Amino acid sequence: MNAVLETQDTVQFSPLPDAFERVDLIEALPLPNPISMLVDPTSLCNFRCQFCPTGDPHLIKQSGRSQNFMPLELLQRILDGVREFEQPLKVLRLYKDGEPLLNPHFAEFVRQAKAVPQVQRVETTTNGSKLDRAMARRLMDAGIDRIVISIEGVSAQKYLEFAKVRIDFDALVENIAYLHSIRGQCQIHVKTVQENLGEGEDAVFRELFGPICDRLFIERTVPSWPTFNIDRLVRRESRELDAQHRPLVRKRVCAYPFYSLSVNSDGTVSPCCVDWRRDLVLGDVRRERLLDIWNGAALAELRRTHIERGRAGNPTCASCGQVDYCATENLDGAEGRLRKAFGATA
Ligand code: SF4
């Protein structure tokens, strides 16, 4: 399997991050506000996937992480913060640690986010288990721009093995087909990981989902989480390739603190999508303005650490594989410009 772009009738088989145009980040820094944000509708999930810390309830309990649904009032407070942004928010992703569609207000989250002039695109990533016809219609009515569906196998048995959950697999496929049939301008993307496919199942995955999505991709399981080791699940040959099958580029500086924010379901704010344990919390939108967190001391200190000492300077970032295996942006070599832009001292 490689990442060469192929066209199969109407579906593109290509890495999902390539679906939209990207800005040249170093040229755009410093930014007056984040240009990409995640907001987590819930930290709870109904699947128990082994590659994800949320799939281990014991670990989550030990970590003390809040397990909750984000209330609609909190989402509204976040959106009020976004309305203060000077530059557009290129993408608002409504997911992070949990299964977003479990939140009973999810479609309303989308509708309200779409009503904010600064928000250019609203997306989510879901396991698809709650994506029945009624939900599909609600999401289309709300105006969502992209739905990425993570597939955990090509049969109910594979779901039981990989996600420890019983699902009606035929119903899942039918629901995605229905969603695709009513999608309008919304993009439906489907992905899985190579490790969830057995011998010959690549073809089954393409045959089942190719005709009912706009973009399809098979990623690799990669060791992306800080302080959550999944080495046992990662194939030896995957260690030197990134999630999109490209040669691995190890990076010293993480770009996330320079362009993005992630709001957890309880209102705490992290710099990135993989801060599952809340080690890097920068502030709390229940008490602070988003822009104050963006311009605040905690994020300035994290940026300074990355510019001066690289991610090795922070114990959580030091154990993080997201930067090497999943992130597209690369700020290595631009430390001088970053120092100038952010006023860090050598
Ligand atoms: S290095 Fe990893 S944990 Fe640290 S900010 Fe970047 S993505 Fe997050």
Describe the structure.
The structure is a single chain. This protein has 346 residues and is of the alpha/beta class. The chain has 14 helices and eleven strands. Helix 8 (201-209) links the parallel strand 7 and strand 8 (215-219). Helix 3 (72-82) packs parallel to helix 4, helix 4 packs parallel to helix 5 and helix 11 packs antiparallel against helix 14. The model is unreliable at 1-9 (pLDDT under 50).
Q: What's the short story on this structure?
A:
The chain has 346 residues and is of the alpha/beta class. Helices cover 32% and strands 13% of the residues.
The low-pLDDT segments are 1-9
The 3D shape can be described as: globular
Strand content: 5-15%
- Percentage of residues assigned to helices: 25-40%
Strand order of the largest sheet: 1-2-8-7-6-5-4-3-9-10-11
Q: State the total count of DSSP E strands.
A: 11
SS summary, helix count: 14
Report the sheet with the most strands, covering strand number, pairing sense and barrel closure. Answer: 11 strands, mixed
What descriptors fit this protein?
346 residues; disordered N terminus; alpha/beta; 14 helices; single chain
Would you spell out the secondary-structure blueprint of this structure?
Layout: E1 6-8, E2 11-13, H1 25-28, E3 36-39, H2 57-63, H3 72-82, E4 91-93, H4 106-114, E5 122-126, H5 133-142, E6 146-150, H6 156-163, H7 169-181, E7 187-193, H8 201-209, E8 215-219, H9 256-259, E9 260-263, E10 268-270, E11 283-284, H10 290-294, H11 297-309, H12 315-318, H13 322-325, H14 335-342
Parallel strand pairs: 2-8, 3-4, 3-9, 4-5, 5-6, 6-7, 7-8
Antiparallel strand pairs: 1-2, 9-10, 10-11
Helix pairs in contact: 3-4, 4-5, 11-14
The structure holds iron/sulfur cluster.
Residues 226, 254, 256-257, 271-272, 274-275, 311, 316-317, 320, 322-323 line the site of iron/sulfur cluster (SF4).
